[in-house]
Amino acid sequence: MQCPFCGARDTKVLDSRPAEHRIRRRRECIFCGKRFTTYEMVERPLLMVKKRDGSFEPFDRQKLITGIFNAIKKRPVSVEQVAAIAEGIEQQCANAMRSTVTSVDIGNWVMEHLKRIDAVAYIRFASVYEDFTDVASFVAAISALDEETAAAKMAESKEQGE
Q1: Is 41:23 a contact under the CB 8 Å cutoff?
Q2: What residues form DSSP beta bridges with 13?
């Protein structure tokens, strides 16, 4: 590691500790004695998103977070939950060693996460993502969500009854 003060390449690590998906290292230059901090993180491969029109663009975590924030406005969903959704999707692709992912896959993963967190946010996201054009589309999505919720509650009550 090159010292940012004198340019010497001989430094020693004084302290290492994890810090938000990366490693924080406190270093000292052997030549000038000054200390500085570096961060080390795993380099993920460039993830490309295949859009519905067939074009490709680099995965943009901020764009994903902005889309989720539009769905959760004035809902009891925390910033941490949104960040966890984005991190989870990015991590899922990295763990599968994927270099491309479709926007359809990303949208479906977001909807699955939102469905578990907040039903209203789920419907809001689905309305944009699935391009609802009429009231019947909203009603159908809400009905499907109600049926899933009722089935999950029945399954849960059967498990508790056993």
Answers
A1: yes
A2: 27
Q: Which of 105, 117, 122 is nearest to 70 (CA)?
A: 122
pTM recorded for the entire structure: 0.64
Say how many CA atoms lie within 13 Å of 111 toward its Cβ.
16
Mean pLDDT of all residues belonging to the chain: 87
Are 29 and 10 a contacting pair, CB within 8 Å? yes
Helix, strand or coil for residue 120?
Answer: helix
Q: Which strands sit side by side in the sheet containing 48-50, from one edge to the other?
A: 56-58, 48-50, 100-102
Q: How much is the pLDDT for 90? A: 87
Q: What is the pLDDT of residue 162?
A: 58
* Half-sphere exposure in the Cβ direction for 4 (13 Å, CA): 5
